[in-house]
Amino acid sequence: MKVKMILPALTEALSPFWRPIKYHLFPPLGLATIASFFDEDDEIDLQDEHVEVLNLNDEPDLVVIQVYITSAYRAYELADHYKSKGAYIALGGLHVTSLPEEAAQHADTIFLGPGEDTWRQFLQDFRTGHPAKMYESKIRTLVGSPPIRRDLIKRHHYLVPNSIVVSRGCPHHCDFCYKDAFYKGGKSFYTQPVDDALAEIERLPGKHLYFLDDHIFGHEAFAAELFEGMKGMGRVWQAAATVQSIFKPGLLEKAAEAGLRSMFVGFETLNPHNLREQHKYHNLNRDYSGAIKRLREFGVMVNGSFVYGMDSDDDTVFDRTIEWAITQGIETATFHILTPYPGTLLYKRMLAQNRITIHNWDLYDTRHAVYSPTQMSVETLENGYWRSYRDFYRWSSIFKGVWTKDNLADRLRHLAYTGAWKKAEPIWDMLIRLKQVNHLLPTLENVLNSFDNHSLAKQNVNELPKSQLSHTST
């Protein structure tokens, strides 16, 4: 059987004028995971349109397309193209799960939720000529899942080819997050067996890893055992976790000893009213500054995430957020406009309030305001978003961040990492066009590996300030 698997590109990723590096970071793990359920003699062509021109002249028997909201129209265009050629079309992903009726118009079969427990059955049905119109995930487990088909990934196209996911979902329930919509009807957070996760890590060449899990610290016992197993592997890695989990006694210590060097942290907002409104309770009454300090003590850089446009935000939110992020010495920051994704509680609430003004999925990219804010205009919100990137990554701001560090080595690392991420964008663009972006991976490894972990042998939970320990109880 000839199988074509496609990750459609967002419009921005195909610009002839500018190619952002973020679309060349990670390979399509979701499709490579599904590919592991096919037979050895099936001929699979996996293409990521972000990094390569699609071959649309082929004649596959089955076409599998992963659909995100801002690639939905492109996904449907590709599905219709192959359907007209007689191929069988299977669509899955976040957007398909959120709007199955819409996706079904362009597919022979749609998949709702994660695919590990539905693809075996689909392939059996497909081979016998009786596939269903829809498969919905109910049994949530990664036990017994075959290894990802990494042989299908074109590693040279990516800065971070060693991306990995060892869990699914997140234990928290935020109104603006896709997670609950995608995992409805079953468990919304579960992990691989630790031995399987360690075996997958062993398969990956080089030193660098990037855990794409929503919350690597989400299951404390699993995370602790995973980090223990990773000691001595010589890895340097990046991941995401919550403010709350950073204070868990002993967990960050184990992670840093296992090679953690950079953490994505969803601060989202400095306003407690916003946190309550979005049900992000695990950030309430947390010491953001203390979390950053604790990460820094273990040589871990911080990528802070912030969301604008919640109902308690007015036009002062941008300057307050940027000033706070700079003075905290955060190495990198990502900013987003609050976006009501279909299927989320936020979407349902705003739809009921008649506040959603745009239904063009291309604009649901966290860069456009697709709803009516309560305390500022759409123009103010969008301008503030763009200004935040400009102000945070201007040289004067970078140097302010540099001088929050205590020693020359940390200052130089901050300067190199923060400056390279934004100020070197023309270089990234050139390397992407020359298909040489992967050649900078050793440089990334060296920067991450250079962090000083001298405090690891000295610090333990008993030495944490009481103000920090008070946040570990909930």
From TrEMBL:
It comes from the Bacteria. The keyword Transferase applies. Keywords: Iron, Iron-sulfur, Metal-binding, Methyltransferase, S-adenosyl-L-methionine, Transferase. Residues 156-374 form the Radical SAM core domain. Its cofactor is [4Fe-4S] cluster. GO terms for molecular function: 4 iron, 4 sulfur cluster binding; catalytic activity; cobalamin binding; metal ion binding. One of its GO terms (cellular component) is cytosol. InterPro entries: Aldolase_TIM, BchE-like, Cobalamin-bd, Elp3/MiaA/NifB-like_rSAM, Methyltransferase_Class_B, rSAM, rSAM_sf. Transmembrane segments: none annotated. The keyword DNA-binding does not apply. This is B12-binding domain-containing radical SAM protein.
